[in-house]
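anyone else get weird line breaks when pasting these?? whatever heres mine. first is seq + tokens for prot A
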Amino acid sequence: MPVPFTTDDTERLRETLQEIVTDGATPGGVLVTGTTDGDQHVVTAGTIATECGPQPPTAHTLYDIASLTKVVATWPLIGQAVQEGLIDLDGPVRDILPVMTGETPSGEATVRQLLAHTSGLRASTRLDHYRGTELPLHEAMCREPLENSTGAHRYINRGYILLGLALAHVHRRPLDRLAARTWGTFGMTATTYGPVTRTPQVAPTEQRFPGAPRIWGTAHDDNAVLLGGVAGHAGVFSTPSDLATYARVLLTGEENGVLGDWLRSSTVPQAAIEPGLDRGLSWILAHGGTVAYHHGFTGTSLYLAPPTGRYLVICTNAVYYGPARTRLAPLRALALKTISST
């Protein structure tokens, strides 16, 4: 039986969200807590942003979810492709990319290693550095030497960029169309790759230069922008409501279905991050693998607790005021503690 969140749980989350808004960590935000049996609570605070007027954000406000793209777009598509026999989880990524010539040391990284951030690829990713090369992007990236030995955990975006290119190649279809089809089957009607139209229901993100307009409706991530807004590591926009729907699909599938098998195999530790935290396939694992979660740089998070049927969604545009990680730390710490309690 799912374990519902208590009134005290919800109230503590509400107070902490309001505190970080009051302290200037984010213009506002939305939290959704829920379980697989349909119990759900939505908590909001603040406003979407100055540009959007005085109205508060809602469960239907559209946020740039940044690196949640990894678990909302790339991870489920890889799982489906593995199940269909299109991708070998332990095969080198070069085998599922367009044909390359010569030595490709980074192309020898396996799909599993790329998902788990244990590939040893270069951590720094600047796609603008590839301008002017005669090689296709995937080949230029794969020809680079490894920066570290394989097996150790190091968070690397370029692995997911390669996975996004590989998915498009093996399906002979653009990544955004593949993802849209999958989201449609999940009932995630608002989730999309950008750019999206600037409206008062779309949360702006960062102002890069004084006096310049804020990023609003286009991906905050520079590398995603250089890929037309569609990438395996970033570029997706979603709502708190859609992310809650996705969480329920994953947790319900955990009981029955191929997606549940993929979630179970993905919550097996692949590498240690730090004491108490491991990396599974894409997901960060806590409390002995009973909680899986991921963050987005812009101020988003998604938490799953399969044994208790619980999920928790955080959507903010905290990057509106600069780097979000430190500013959101109290809320994210409470979210992890809350979803872990029974």
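and prot B, same format (seq, then tokens)
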Amino acid sequence: MPGTDLKITPQLSIPESELVERFVRASGAGGQNINKVSTAVELRFDIAQSPSLPEALRARLLGKRDRRLTDEGVIVIDAQRFRTQDRNRQDARERLAAFIATGLSVPKSRIATKPTRASKTRRLEGKRARGDVKRGRSGRHSWD
């Protein structure tokens, strides 16, 4: 897998040179192995400075409110689900590809609409009926 580009779509791929991987010791349970072997992967990708991303996609990705994005526009993905370094590396790359793929779809802009006359009437009728129910609960009855 080393030396291969990260393929997002058939038209879009990220060169290996733009990805920065760091191998660290994983946290959590795992016994002696976890204390000796650096199996966790920290994958960094600079979205803001990447020449391989189209400008519109870059803007959508940077506009997301994701806790993995730094203020400088770098996404940091930590992968430590698996016991092997290779599998964690693959997992981090898959998660980066999924994150970038979410920015590929352009959100539809909302078209402002007004409520219809019938829906306004139904709403007001409901309010009136509810008010009648509440008015009926008050203690102004003459129980002869």
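btw re prot B: The longest helix spans residues 117-137. The radius of gyration is 28 Å.
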